[in-house]
Amino acid sequence: MSAAMIAPTTLQFLVDLAQNNNKEWFQAHKPAYEQAHANMSAFAREFLKLMQDHDRIVTERPGSNLYRIYNDLRFHKNKPIFNTRFAGGFNRVKPALRGGYYFHIEPGRSYVSCGFFGPSADDLKRIREDIAVNLEDWQAVLASPSVKILIKVNQSVIFVPWEGHQEILRSANLKNSISRLRANRARPSG
Question: Which end of the chain has fewer CB atoms surrounding its CB within 10 Å, N or C?
Fold first, then answer.
């Protein structure tokens, strides 16, 4: 099996972990976890190579782009001990390029996303300005059948097609921001 493929045993481990999310089960199945983790590390390395064909990605830690399987229980006492997904991310080369990519592998809920998480005020301003100037381009991209919106509701993540949900783009705050940016660009400087 190619290193770029996720093995069925990796997905089965995640299914089994979701049904047995406790320390005893995990310890008894540690070899299966280690095999699944090695498979996902190989997948992440191959995925990184593919991403570098079209973007400049930071490669200081190739293969270690996976997030921990252990949940941080310090602030969430009722969370399961283990994450029932493998996930990881790639950052773009800074300072010229910002943002990044995230991948989430979980049976029935796998996805890849890109964008900013908590952009700085300057980056947020640049994003809003780009939307204002290139609104038609943004709408064309978002109208693609492959684009889905991630919505988080009470710890559940759902994906809905963008088509039919454009009211999110037309929300009052974004619409007002675009109007203000366009008005500011139209004013003569001086």
Answer: C
